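Notes from the pairing session

We agreed to fold both candidates in a single pass and log them together. This is the raw record for the first candidate, unedited. Please don't reformat it; downstream parsing expects exactly this layout.

Candidate A
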Amino acid sequence: MTDVTDLVSRVAARAEGDSGPLPPGMSPEDIAEAERLLGFRLPPLLAKLYQDVADGGFGPPGGFLPLTGEGPTVLSTYASERRSSARDAIPYWPEGVLPVLDWGCGMYAAVDTRTEEGAVLLYEPNAVDDDGAAAWFLDAGSLAAWLETWLAGTGWYREDADEDDLPLGGPVPWEEAAARIAEQPAGREGPA
């Protein structure tokens, strides 16, 4: 069992060391408003990070997206991907999966809000042509485990990761992807 308070403190310390001053954290009211716009709650650890660490800018390379505000944010990116997925001949973005970090080249780290632990998924669309589910991989069973990997410097995304034998070879296909994409509720594309 992860001590959330300790984990959040270690994330904050690492973030300050990596990037210097961060944007202020969000108020509980701001997080509640973001959840209202989304139509669902954030996993508790994700909400605590945005409240107690910062509104983005921390985490693995590229840093967490801000939850709300100007430019690319969690809410704007989620809404954009949900709209595109709903219009696409090959749907690809499930409801409740929030993009929290932009890896570049269309790739995202995303948190599954349907799990209390906030499973972390990798969205990698670049090799997919006829199955949106094939773009989804399980990176970590929980946000806490994913953050511990980052803190330990053992993530698959490290520049020198190819020099190591990663356990299980890194992310594995997300078995729930096809079912979650197929259950798209009509008219529900995400926040405006």
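Candidate B (folded immediately after A)
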Amino acid sequence: MANRRRVLLKLSGESFGGGALGVNPDVVAQIAREIAEAATEVEIAVVVGGGNFFRGAELSQRGMDRRRADYMGMLGTVMNALALQDFLEQAGAQVRVQSAISMTQVAEPYIPLRAVRHLEKGRVVVFGAGAGLPYFSTDTVAAQRALEILADEVLVAKNGVDGVYSSDPKTNPDAQKFDRLSYQEALVKGLKVVDSTAFSLCMDNNMPMLVFGMEPAGNVTRALLGERIGTLVS
């Protein structure tokens, strides 16, 4: 088991809902199969978003206390983490969920060394409840967790876009896709790869980031196994 590739995969909450509210079982089952396929060869940790249930920032714009809205969002990520655990187990993977908010009935507490031990034993570790703190996006948590478990790379799975472009490809047909980018270039060009805090964490600690699209089917497995799809930011 020595020196296997170790990665952290960031999945958005939107991907769980297939664009709708809640969890779409068919979509999550497909994602789980793709992760399970790679889990036999790669050590995989996953950070899930909660946008299919709640978005703290959006709720706070409607007058809700930002801190409380963020905690609601974190609880949404735990629901996604449990759904992913179930479908991963159905696909034959061994899984542990760790939550940054204490919920001992459904998940282990977030303990970095224990997470690493699970990975070394070939288990997929799913991190729920974000950072357990308001004002932190799950993008930032993905960067932080990747650094703390000594991952080789952060993989950011995107919906509806297959990498980093010079501008929004949905609105600008002339937008150019980058195969490789330095963090410095991305900052200077003002490219919205992930949120700025996550970006800074990866840049300051030399953590490479692969931004790729979840379509077509099989892309998640390819990215996990180290195939160069999407855009590499380093």
